[in-house]
Amino acid sequence: MVNAKVKANRQRDKRVVVNFICKMFSQGECEINPIKAEIHMLLLRLTVEKKVKFDEEKSIILLNLWDLLSSIKEEKFNTMWKEENDQLVRAYQFENFNEAFGFMTRAAMIIEQHNHHPEWTNVYNRLEIRLRTHDAGNTVTDKDRDLAEALEALYQKK
């Protein structure tokens, strides 16, 4: 049975991690890999400082972190890409045509790597992308979500 002190420590550790993740996202560092690296360092530091037992408590913290990261990633993704009419849709706006076209050029490389080609429309500084899998009966599949995430990561780097 978990005593009150252990519960309080878990809540404190969870707050530390939540604050850390919020700080990372507010600085625009939205790539999951750097966040994972920072979390790993945080957990190592907590372990070395003997604030967290290596086994049980670290495992619980890691599971909580994974759940938290998954929900943040899903929430962030859902605010940018919308699923409508059996397709994922995202509108981007750039400073000018050159930026929009530059993004499309860089995106083309990623699109080729995924071997999954979107419907897209460009008007001056605006770009709209629509993703759906034709082979799956024109519905949204993991192939669409994977490409959407890759395109979003590219956009975040601009």
Determine the mean pLDDT.
75
Low-confidence stretches: 25-32
The number of helices is 5
Largest sheet: 4 strands, antiparallel
- Total beta-strand segments: 4
- The named CATH superfamily of the largest domain: Transcriptional coactivator/pterin dehydratase
Helical residues, percent: 55-70%
Q: Which fold name fills CATH's third level, the topology of the largest domain? A: Gyrase A, domain 2
Gyration radius, to the nearest Å?
A: 20 Å
Strand content: 5-15%
Q: CATH class of the largest domain, anyone?
A: Alpha Beta
**If classified by CATH, what would the architecture of the largest domain be?**
2-Layer Sandwich
Gross geometry: elongated
Taken in chain order, the helices and strands follow as: HHHEEHEEH
Cα distance spanning the termini:
50 Å
Strand order of the largest sheet: 1-2-4-3
Number of domains: 2
Structural class: alpha+beta
Task: Spell out the key features of this protein.
single chain; 158 residues; alpha+beta; Gyrase A, domain 2; four-stranded antiparallel β-sheet; 5 helices; 63% helix; elongated
